[in-house]
Amino acid sequence: MSFSLKNKSAILFDMDGVLYDSMPNHSKAWSQAMEKFGMHMSPHDVYMNEGATGHDTVVRISLRDRGYEATQSEIDDIYGYKASLFRSMPEARVMPGALDVFRKAAAAGLKILIVTGSGQKNLIERVQRDFEGYITRDRMVTAFEVTRGKPYPDPYLKGLSIAGVPASEAVVVENAPLGIRAAVAAGIDTIAVNTGPLEDEILLAEKPALLLHSMQELADNLEKLFA
Questions:
Q1: Secondary-structure class of domain 23-88 per CATH
Q2: Would you give the DSSP letter of residue 92?
Q3: Among 2, 146, 163, 169, whose Cα sits 20 to 30 Å from the Cα of 153?
Q4: What is the mean pLDDT of the chain?
Q5: What does the pLDDT look like over 112-141, one tens digit per residue?
Q6: From residue 13, how far is each of 35, 64, 146, 155 by CA, in Å?
Q7: Which among 31, 39, 115, 29 is positioned nearest to 70, based on CA atoms?
Q8: Mode of pairing for the β-strands spanning 210-212 and 111-115
Q9: What residues form DSSP beta bridges with 204?
């Protein structure tokens, strides 16, 4: 691998599809919620829109399917229903290899942050328990901290500000096209982990520095990347 983490001092992780195998639940919840409100969202649509805030996702699908932007009341109703469906589903497992990546990154002295478009409060609370000792709420950028979500660079720029490091000293771990686009737009080297059904080419089109296929693969190769 030609990519190196040698001069990095902070690592910023997306959450869904990176730290948790939660995207299948999100896919089902979005599909059912959109159907209830007269729109359609396929699994492919969900993965392509992953990383955007719930607000932006509803706006985008409404424009596509209905030709007009959803009202704030509609957005609140649709996302609220989607969130309730998500909470009712079986708890997503921690992604295999994720804790190993955290341990090795911390041992190498990297600051660890989470940058997610999620507003799912149960996952935001859970990640602080599952990754206790590595993550606290003040090291997280969520849908509640930014006005413009991914694919805008704002969430990752906020993460850099919290970490107190320039973009050149940070690395992002992302699984979603919009998330990779946001990180690259913020000037941050990005490792793509393709943990979903999208073709590699879709992620590579967003110009990540490296593409892997699981968090376990990242964990297994982290020492090499520091070499």
A1: mainly alpha
A2: P
A3: 2
A4: 95
A5: 999 998 877 888 899 999 999 999 999 999
A6: 31, 30, 16, 11
A7: 39
A8: unpaired
A9: none
